[in-house]
């Protein structure tokens, strides 16, 4: 008869008991136990796997240790997933998945929904006027006042070329929440999954639903710091081989967004030399051109289960030649090998 060592929820390890299969009314946990054991055996070398299965009276310590670690990881990731969904302020759900290794939630990452200004930086620059349109799609609205075209079509898909700013209706506008010029401000509408990549790229983000081309997907948020501070942090990040610095250089080059410690789901989006997301500068309630909001839109139809990526150098599709519109987020000095796997891969992230 098979017996299982049971850890009782809410009780210390000292109260663990051995129970026969007939006493266990937890089919999901038993299936996870079986899957974890199978995954461990499939990861070790064939010759070693044979020796691990020789003694069928008890699990080898290595297998038991892996199963316990995997169970604890699963609990930790579920708690992290719950926390992320409590903190987000938009419709789309966040899921977390790791079927690759034993990596748990990041220990030094704090989820935020909007820019977090560093000490000494003020982002308070409330808009002083708004439109009085009855139909913003046909009347002279906020974009026209700013001297640009309305960014969206009737399906709320972006229709302007990269490099062109987006001016959405703001809190002083008389139009309602269903206005066709309110897209980025409504947040992510899609359910997305933070997942562990299998080719050494750490965490990534994939969509769980189909995303139409030219649709808003997410904002890139983080801590707003000065360019001088970004240079200092960039040196530290280079040594760790990470890139989270995104220059706010729409018109000037005074400030940078650092999403290393503070950020949203965009923190986990990987680079690709052939990306499916494109960056746009957005202005809503703050019209200060030094602080554009950074929005990521799909460049093509993205199918459910597909990974989301953007080009850390913002080259390729919609490349902007003007220096004032060079949206290069990566301040790098040490060359980092690119693992995106695209046919057009440049070989390096920087």
From TrEMBL:
MF terms (GO), sorted A to Z: histone H3K9 trimethyltransferase activity; zinc ion binding
Domain (Pre-SET) ranges: 129-187
A single GO cellular-component term on record: nucleus
Enzyme class (EC, first level): transferase
Domain Chromo per the UniProt entry, residue ranges: 1-45
Subcellular location(s) per record: Chromosome, Centromere; Nucleus
PANTHER family: HISTONE-LYSINE N-METHYLTRANSFERASE SUV39H, HISTONE-LYSINE N-METHYLTRANSFERASE SUV39H2
Name of the protein in its database record: Histone-lysine N-methyltransferase
Source organism of the structure: Trichechus manatus latirostris
């Amino acid at each position: 008869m098979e017996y299982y060592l049971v850890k009782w929820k809410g009780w210390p390890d000292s109260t663990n008991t051995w129970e026969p299969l007939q006493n266990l009314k937890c089919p999901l946990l038993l299936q996870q136990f079986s899957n974890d054991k199978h995954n461990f055996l499939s990861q070790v070398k064939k010759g070693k796997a044979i020796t691990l299965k020789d003694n069928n009276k008890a699990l080898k310590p290595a297998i038991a240790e892996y199963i316990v670690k995997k169970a604890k990881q699963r609990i930790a990731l579920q708690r992290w997933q719950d926390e992320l969904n409590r903190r987000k302020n938009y419709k789309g759900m966040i899921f977390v998945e790791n079927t690759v290794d034993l990596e748990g939630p990041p220990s030094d990452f704090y989820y935020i929904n909007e820019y977090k200004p560093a000490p000494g930086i003020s982002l308070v620059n409330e808009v002083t006027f708004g439109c009085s349109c009855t139909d913003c799609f046909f009347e002279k609205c906020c974009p026209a006042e700013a001297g640009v075209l309305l960014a969206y079509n009737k399906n709320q898909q972006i229709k302007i070329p990269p490099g062109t700013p987006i001016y959405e209706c703001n809190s002083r506008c008389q139009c309602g929440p269903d206005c066709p010029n309110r897209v980025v401000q409504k947040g992510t509408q899609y359910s997305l999954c933070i997942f562990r990549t299998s080719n050494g790229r750490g965490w990534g983000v994939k969509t769980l639903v189909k995303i139409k081309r030219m649709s808003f997907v997410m904002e890139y948020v983080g801590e707003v710091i000065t360019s001088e501070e970004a240079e200092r942090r960039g040196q530290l990040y280079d040594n760790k081989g990470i890139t989270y610095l995104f220059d706010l250089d729409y018109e000037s080059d005074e400030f940078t967004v650092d999403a290393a410690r503070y950020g949203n789901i965009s923190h986990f989006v990987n680079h690709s030399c052939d990306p499916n997301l494109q960056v746009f500068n957005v202005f809503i309630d703050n019209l200060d051109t030094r602080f554009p909001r950074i929005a990521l839109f799909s460049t093509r139809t993205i199918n459910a289960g597909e990974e989301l990526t953007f080009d850390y150098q913002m080259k390729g599709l919609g490349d902007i030649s003007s220096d004032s519109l060079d949206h290069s987020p990566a301040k790098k000095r040490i060359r980092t090998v690119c693992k995106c796997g695209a046919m057009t891969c440049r070989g390096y992230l920087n």
